[in-house]
Amino acid sequence: xxxxxxxxxxxxxxxxxxxxxxxxxxxxxxxxxxxxxxxxxxxxxxxxxxxxxxxxxxxxxxxxxxxxxxxxxxxxxxxxxxxxxxxxxxxxxxxxxxxxxxxxxxxxxxxxxxxxxxxxxxxxxxxxxxxxxxxxxxxxxxxxxxxxxxxxxxxxxxxxxxx
Length: 163
Known about the structure:
This protein is an all-beta fold. It has two domains: about 60 residues, no CATH class; about 90 residues, no CATH class. The protein contains one helix and twelve strands; from the N terminus they run E-E-E-E-E-E-E-E-E-E-E-H-E. The strands form three sheets. Strands 1, 2, 3, 4 and 5 form a five-stranded antiparallel sheet that branches. The protein has a five-stranded mixed beta barrel with strand order 6-10-9-11-12. A two-stranded antiparallel sheet has the order 7-8. A hairpin with a 2-residue loop joins strand 7 and strand 8. The longest helix is centred in the last third of the chain and has 4 residues. The N and C termini lie far apart (about 35 Å). The mean pLDDT is about 90.
């Protein structure tokens, strides 16, 4: 029985392509509805990503939207690089910037996305999508952050099962 379903529409009404995924196949094995997610894979940086639409704790199954071009609002860390396993450089986040699912142990709790292509161990982060805007009002807010560490609420178009 599904215990939680995404029903707030901070996300776009864009495409929805769902698949049921056992928690054990998710990088974060305690999924939360509405969060971005990453499926595990043999090769770092190649994982499939998407958005958690529902979770069934009884069966340990999450329903994930893996559609390309699905828009969502997520927190994005503005880290660009790591050195000695800690954040080293940061930058403003702008429309069109790549956003990665970041597995770094240094990420703030509840934040899964950053602008860094590598995690704090030097392993490849998976491309999650790109910063995008669905309204001109949102576009006027960018760039967000600066060259100091921060986490920004951003509109992101997910790559999903896209090319």
